[in-house]
Amino acid sequence: LVGSDEGLQQKLAEAILREEKSFKISIHLATSLPLPSERDQLRPRIDLIVFVIDVKNKYSLKNVEASLAHVDASFFLGKVCFLVTGVGRVNYCSVEMNAIWKLGEVYSSPVLFCELELEGIRVATAQRLLRMLRICAGHVPGVSALTFASLMRNYADD
Amino acid sequence: SEKMQRRRSSKTPKQPLQVLQKNQTDLSAWRKEGKTDSAKSVWNHQSPKDQKNDNEQDSLEQALSFFEKGKSIQDRVSLKKSSALQKHLAAVETVALQSGLPPEGFDVLLNVALSGKLADTVNTRILKSLVPASVIPEDAVVSAVSWLCVGKCSGNVQLLFLRWLITVFDFIDRKEQLHALYGFFFSFLQDEKMCPYVCHVLYLLTRKESVKPFRVRRLLDLQVKMGMQSHLQALLSLYKLFCPELVTINLPKKAKTYFKNAEGPWKAAINAIKRRKQENSPVSQALFLGTAPPQSRKRKWNSQLIIYASSVDRNNLEEDRQNNCGDLCSQSLPLERLQTFSQLLHNIHRLEFPSRMGSVLTNPLLLHYMNCVKDESIYLRLYYWMGQVLQEECTWCVAGNSEYEEEFKDFLETVYKTECFLQEGFSSCEEFLYKTLPLWDGFCCRSQILRLVSWIPLSSFSEMKSNLYDPLSQLFLTSSLYFKCSVLESLRELLQNWLNWHMVYLDSESDSQGHSSNTTLSGLVDAVAELIHFVGGISTVALQLEDNATFLLYFILNFYETVCDVYLKYNLPLLIMPPAGVFYPALLSMDSVNLNQLCYIMYRYRTNLVAAKQNELSKKKILQFKFSSRTYQEYNQYIIAMVGCLWTSSVFQKDIHPQGLRMDDELLKKTTVQEFKTSFNIVYHPAMMGYAVLFLQQAWPDDTTLNFSLIKGKTWNWYLEYLYAEGLKGLKLFIESSISRVSQAS
Predict the structure, then answer these.
(1) Most buried residue, A92, A95, B145, B476, by CB count within 10 Å?
(2) pLDDT for B533-573, tens place per residue?
(3) Residue B644 DSSP one-character state
């Protein structure tokens, strides 16, 4: 999870870990990328990168934009997702919604909305992320991360 | 205390309107049940041990006396200099925030605040503390307006008064005199700063008789001077609805929000007081609701509506009844006088709707009226009110509302029930959904939102795609199994509503709520087809994600049960087969329920196709629509697979569908199934094997070896009868229609 609000990230991570699941999961929290290179060898495979953007905080968007530059191109084949929190204060948002939609388009990655400050929604969001993670880790036969991401972005029937 | 009793004596207690919780269609229940002296003012219900409250009442009385005696207040005395003023002002503010001001207090305070005698800071504080505990007497407001006309107070105070008036409009007990002051309000339009708020007030007050040519001209002149402002637009639109012949200019049909929120401290204070009252005195709660059971939760919006509804003074009501002039009067009939259905019928031409349209939602008589009389003005007013409430009370878009989620859920339920009653969706609801679905987390008010989705009216594919399909599919793909099933159910109802709408409305020329009358038959067919394709697509993915769960397949096949009969039941020239990603999982499902559903659906497809073919052949002229040969081909491929799978054990050889089950003999041998050429039919099908076992046990109870090959010839027929008796009606219909039996020697 990459995002500037550490408190919220922590809560979200805890919510994810509390969920029942049949696989082992480890969550790395970071405020920005790149990750420090010292621990590169010890790091497990990363299946999903979630960029957390707080709609009330212009800095969080800038932070994410800067971090995106450090992500390897292969991740954008379905292993990146943007999580926008602060929807509950839509009247106070200082970040343009258009900028966020554009970000999703440019990086071909899904954009999820939530309000992490509310517990019920936090739990529901944790569940959604877990389901995405299952697919990105290849646990669902017949559905790859790339297929899934393209379905999420633009549902086209064929 | 005694002083308060004296003040109160001039007003008679108001009767609350009893709103029932039952279904709207139960009309007989909607009658007033006798008069009870029930609506006592809140003061009577204070618990005797509340000494603090009593003290506050005393200090409020003193404050009111102080303000009443104008002489004791010197002109423009500043707050700092007069400690008495400070003390009394503080007393008023305390009581106002604690429990609201009694009706008697408004007259005094409004006079003081608007007469300009005191400094602006004092006036502002007074106005901000004008929180009503129950009702606001009309006289107080009228005299306040007269002060406004004199113009003794500053511009800011005037604006604040208008904002207050808009916010507490529904608490004013009567409105007759206010209606009479319409002209005075109208004259305030020339003040640029006041104009938006005055427009809002006029919007609430306007009735058909208020629309006069000179007023229309004035508004148009203002529009020329100030440009097209949304508040002017609102008023002009309302005028146009009442008297379309007077307003000939073109106005946009639907605008987003006409009036910006007249934000102020009153609303929050009113809500806080209501909640406090709920906690403290369940008795008064029951009284407000009539004879509601004590455990019913008082709804924030609903309770407001109950108070709003009584806009007629009870005294006049009595007199009128005695004079028997109710029916003969040419005046309009306020809704409180409506007690029976026959009254509705007699007075249907002169019903006056309440100022706050929301009370219509729970009123079965008014809903009937709305349904029969195509009065655009009602829909428009409801549109603005509902749009505003939905936007403001939405619990995930406004985080502060999360504690009131139950109430919001109830409100959404009521909207849904009303839509079911009227058999159409509200456009404000539709717009709300389009705005919030992309931001929705799929958790808050889930079932209510999904039900409301089913009433979205039909529009072009590109609109539906960006507004509904895209956000919904994002949620769908990342959600739980149950959410997916709920969405499918909701989309099935959406389809059904569109089809029903087609049956009812497309033949008649009229359309309601301004739905695009450009929807031709082909437009409808396209939109329905796109919806079906959308569902087919997400179902395929969902089955992969959920590992072909039976529960999910049930909902998917349920959807196709509606789809397969579109031609025969709804007269729409459309036939769409389920995609292979749905058909094959169903065919190879482990559960007989799904298999049975599939059989029924294929049977219905056959019936529809046969009927279509017959129509084609019998009609001399060329039909506009003809099912393409591709449709027949698809059907045939599926049928071959099904028959092969269930009957002739030949599916692996015969299936010609590109995504089908065709398999080489070599591969089949690897399964080590002994006689694969005869081992794949309804005896050996995994969904049916259970039945086969039970059948064998009943037919040969002594034989413990389960010899499935015994089921052939005559026994085969018994087996079929056994299956039909077990409730597999779909299977029966399919076999009897699609499989012609050649009599076999046993």
Answers:
(1) B476
(2) 999 999 999 999 999 999 999 999 999 999 999 998 988 88
(3) I
Give the closest residue to B490 by CA, choosing from B438, B559, B557.
B559
Enumerate long-range contacts of B658-664, CB under 8 Å, 24 or more apart. Answer: B658/B580, B659/B580, B659/B581, B659/B584, B660/B580, B660/B584, B661/B584, B661/B588
* A140/B396 Cβ within 8 A: no
Task: Give the pLDDT of residue B572.
Answer: 85
The verdict on a CB contact (< 8 Å) between A152 and B474 is yes
Instruction: Compute the mean pLDDT over every residue in chain B, rounded to the nearest whole number.
Output: 76
Question: How many CB pairs below 8 A link A and B?
Answer: 81
**Architecture in CATH of A6-34+45-155:** 3-Layer(aba) Sandwich (3.40)
Nearest-by-CA chain A residue for B470: A155
SS3 state of residue B316: helix
Which residues of chain A lie closer than 8 angstroms to B465, CB-CB? 155
Q: Are B158 and B190 in contact (CB under 8 A)?
A: no
Contact B470 A154 (CB under 8 A): yes
Collect all residues of chain B within an 8 Å Cβ-Cβ radius of residue A16. Answer: none
Q: pLDDT for B570-598, tens place per residue?
A: 888 889 999 999 999 999 999 999 999 99
Neighbouring residues of B432: CB distance < 8 A, sequence distance ≥ 6:
B387, B390, B391, B394
Instruction: Say if the ipTM goes beyond 0.85.
Output: yes
Q: How distant, in Å, are the alpha carbons of B36, B40, B184, B266 from that of B159? A: 40, 33, 15, 15
B132-146, B245-259, B429-443: the lowest-pLDDT one: B245-259
Check whether B509 has a pLDDT greater than 50: no
**Encoding tokens for residue B484?**
């997916």
Highest mean pLDDT among B113-122, B403-412, B481-490: B481-490
A115 → closest Cβ in B438, B441, B545: B441
A120 contacts on B by Cβ (under 8 Å):
443-444
Residue B213 DSSP SS3: helix
- Give the A-side interface with B, CB within 8 Å: 87-91, 110, 112-115, 117-118, 120-121, 123-125, 127-129, 131-132, 135, 140-143, 148, 151-152, 154-155, 157-158
This prediction has a pTM of 0.70
Q: Which candidate, B86, B48, B88, places its Cα nearest to that of B67?
A: B88
Average pLDDT over residues B658-687: 82
* More reliable by pLDDT, B84 or A19: A19
HSE (side-chain half, CA atoms, 13 Å) at B709: 6
pLDDT given at position B555: 97
Could you read off the pLDDT of A48-63 as tens digits, one per residue? Answer: 999 999 888 888 889 9
Smallest Cβ distance to B441: which of A91, A125, A135?
A125
Pick A157's closest partner by Cβ from B474, B477, B533.
B533
